[in-house]
Amino acid sequence: MSERKDEDEQVVSLLEEAPRPSDAAGLSSCSPRIVTALYCSTMAINGGMVGAFGPSLETFHRTTHLSPGQLGTAVLANRLAKLFGTVLWAWYAERISASAARGALSAPLMLRPHAAMAVGLATSAASCAVIGFTTSADALRFVVAASGVPYGFTDSACIMLTLWLWRSDAGRQRGAVAVVNVFFTGGAFVTPILVAASLHYLEATVWPAFHTLAAAAILAAAALSCTPSPAPERKSSAASRSTAELDAVSSESEPSELLPKGQSRAGVASTGDSGGGDEGYGDEGGGTPDARGKLGEEEARLGGASPDSREGSRASLGGSLGGSEGRRAAVLIAAAGVIGFFANGCEHTAATWLSPYGVRWCGLADERMAVMTSNYWTSMSAGRVAWAVGSSFVKSAWPVLLLNIALCSIGSLLFCSTSEGALLAAALSLGVGVSSIFPALVSLPAELRVEMTPQRLAVLQLMASAGALREAQPSGCGRERGHRPSPRCRRDALPVRCRHPLPDAHVLVVWAGAHRDAGRRLHCARHGLLRLSNAAAKLPADSAR
For the region Disordered, what residue ranges are annotated (predicted)? Predict the structure, then answer.
């Protein structure tokens, strides 16, 4: 009976791990690098829309006669719509994951992920086309607000699908996420240059930048609709994930004489890695050698117990570890979300209001401020490229986050000055400071072996996007062009998120201290639970004697 049961379990596991026909066809017909390139182009379009809004606000004011307050309200509506798009993707991704668990991805859904992204890009193309030529105030406000929905949907989709596409390799996954974010910044760097050139050579018009974005969005939508979507990650219970992690750690610490003849520990590790399990639960970062050795000793002691008692002990141990993982994930996502809240507020504040701030409060020309906005995105691009190159060489991301927060604080303080040099230094410092914060936050759960589910990614992106809401409406003093207000009024001209990023540093320090001790506390808890389970397994044998 036991052999028959083992054979049935092997058949079920093979059926679960076997790729579906659509997945197999997709993997054979399209390279993951090509799909990643399409995600990069989508993020470049989203970044281009964000980068084009700021330098174009003065032109929108002249052509539609909207006041700065009304334009700020339209930008605020755009950010709220982006939040809705993020929530919409989270719901959609959850439906995809649930359908994949049932093995019927196409039954409850009419659109696959790439088709849904193509619809969002087509909507963005229509929005950019209208923004480029409209002179109606109502049409501009509506289109600017509505364009936030496809922006939030496709932005979240690119990050989540990149994680799914490269889930078999943690190093490449981190690098792919960093590269995708680099292209977002690259798009935001190019469009201010187009806006500045059109303002200078085409009699103060901005339509070339938005029409270029519309054409690029149509091409990207057509390409995505023809490529297969990556398979969603199948759901697994917390107990099974923790038990699999325990198996990986204990198998590392087994004596070599217990292994089959001719097979080394490296062979066992490579076999376990090729099984297609959840990323982040393999041998990487499994604790200190002493901790792994103790776990192996305790696991070896369970070998003398009966199979039923061993399975019961391991099931209870897996459930306990699953609960601790859920608590760790909640604390991690909450802390990372707070950091993203302030960092995203700083990023979008400078991107949207740097040009109007320099024109209205510092007396600089539109073209010069458009170039300065492009320099801001250039510094951010350089920071993200540096993170994409160096992310695979760092063991932890929190020191990089600490450095970024310090640069954000310095740049925010420099915005109190009205000189062109101080504004340029502030833009460059803030650009480098916010460059790698969000890519690092997205890759942090893998360091603590926390699965990045669609819900957790949605919470992180919602908290980060909420930081951009305050920047959408500037304060209302000294709005006349060329008016030079008092230093207090100049400081109030920029939204509060750009002026007060210092709480980020406090949250980061507290979170970093908890992060450094998290692995040690987790292994201590496992060691204690293993001792309890070992004692429970020996009780029936002692009573029988």
Answer: 1-28, 230-324
Residue-wise pLDDT tens digits, 184-232: 888 888 888 888 888 888 877 888 899 999 999 999 999 999 999 888 7
* Residues 92 and 171 occupy one common structural domain: yes
CATH number for 180? 1.20.1250.20
User: Residue 498: inside a domain, yes or no?
Assistant: yes
Tokens at residue 22, please? Answer: 């659509």
Which sign does the torsion angle of CA 122, 123, 126, 131 carry? negative
DSSP-assigned states of every residue in 417-436: --SHHHHHHHHHHHHHHHHT
How far apart, in whole angstroms, are the C-alpha atoms of residue 55 and residue 366? 7
Q: Quick count: other Cβ atoms within 10 Å of Cβ 480?
A: 9
Q: What are the pLDDT digits (tens) for 68-115? A: 888 888 988 998 899 899 899 989 988 888 776 665 544 444 688 999
The Cα 4–Cα 2 span in angstroms is: 5
Q: For residue 424, how many other CB atoms are within 10 A of its CB?
A: 18
267 occurs within a structural domain: no
Same domain, yes or no: 88 and 226: yes
Task: List Cα–Cα distances, 312 to 270, 425, 534, in angstroms.
Answer: 28, 62, 11
User: Does an H or E element contain 204, and which?
Assistant: none
Same domain? For 216 and 292 the reply is no
Q: What is the pTM of this model?
A: 0.61
Whether 270 has a pLDDT exceeding 50, the answer reads: no
Write down the residue that tokens 């890009």 correspond to.
121
Give me the chain's average pLDDT, please. Answer: 71
CB 414, CB 196: distance < 8 Å = no
Asked whether residue 395 falls in the same domain as residue 496, the answer is yes
What CATH number is attached to the domain comprising 445? Answer: 1.20.1250
pLDDT in tens, 355-383: 888 888 888 888 888 888 888 988 988 88
Closest alpha carbon to 478 in 345, 372, 362: 362
Indicate if 29 and 147 belong to the same structural domain: yes
424-465, pLDDT tens digit by residue?
999 999 999 988 888 888 877 777 777 778 788 888 888 887
Task: Label residue 12 exposed, middle or buried (CB < 10 Å: 0-12, 13-18, 19+).
Answer: exposed
Clarify whether residues 118 and 205 are in a common domain: yes
d(CA 140, CA 63): 10
- DSSP letter assigned to residue 236: -
Same-domain status, 89 and 204: yes
Among 234, 320, 331, smallest CA distance to 278 is for: 234
Q: Which domain does 404 fall in, by range?
A: 286-545
Cβ atoms 445, 332 nearer than 8 A: yes
The count of domains in the chain is: 2
